[in-house]
Amino acid sequence: EAGVAQSPRYKIIEKRQSVAFWCNPISGHATLYWYQQILGQGPKLLIQFQNNGVVDDSQLPKDRFSAERLKGVDSTLKIQPAKLEDSAVYLCASSQGWDEGEQYFGPGTRLTVT
Amino acid sequence: KQEVTQIPAALSVPEGENLVLNCSFTDSAIYNLQWFRQDPGKGLTSLLLIQSSQREQTSGRLNASLDKSSGRSTLYIAASQPGDSATYLCAPEIKAAGNKLTFGGGTRVLVKP
User: Fold this and answer.
1) Whole-angstrom Cα distance, residue B58 to residue B56?
2) Which residues of A touch B97 (CB under 8 A)?
């Protein structure tokens, strides 16, 4: 069974530029999560999707971050414009359902904003 | 709001010693608790999941205990090996509008040969 795929693995941009990350969850997993992990800290949930609907985006900085999950499969997380404090690893995870099963994580995208 | 603390933040031991990693959380109304391993530059790998009705869970050299009433979980790794060097994260899950994990800051473990 293929795991959660993410791309790109690394990205370096200047502040005020925009960037997008892509995630492909495990086949058949209805729930998809985006986490932000700042160096030395645990991951923090940004947004949770159930199929193509948003379940929780309470910690997503909506003035600059946006996410979508068209057709309930792949998802894209965008930052526009980026700030220095957005430097972090962005992790995507998926689970079978919104209240069942373990979460499986992708390798993450390491973003550096200069 | 759930707060998760992991102590110690970092741990260095010689190969063969047993490891004890502690996790405490403020909201005891959890659904389950997961322990993850994270290697440098990599994503998270689930090690153990303890249901709220369980007191412990074991997998090979790993054993995790859960005491919901006191808001604590402990991960034991027996006979540590250099390959156990990684960051270990605990994440209790609350059951509210979907399964949400709240992560601690992790314990960074180094096992020296």
Assistant:
1) 7
2) 55-56, 98
- Tell me the pLDDT tens digit for each residue of A56-108: 899 999 999 999 998 889 999 999 999 999 999 999 999 987 666 788 999 99
Q: Which two tokens stand for residue A18?
A: 């925009």
Query: Token pair of B45, please?
Result: 């790998």
Q: Chain A within 8 Å of B76 (Cβ-Cβ)?
A: no
Which of A6, A29, A37 is the best substitution to test chain B (most B C-beta atoms within 10 A)? A37
B42 neighbourhood in chain A, CB within 8 Å? 107-108
Q: Cα angle at B39 between B11 and B47, to 5 degrees?
A: 85
Angle at CA A28, nearest 5°, toward B58 and A22? 95
- pLDDT tens for B7-43 read 999 999 999 999 999 999 998 888 889 999 999 888 8
Q: Does A91 touch chain B (CB under 8 A)?
A: yes
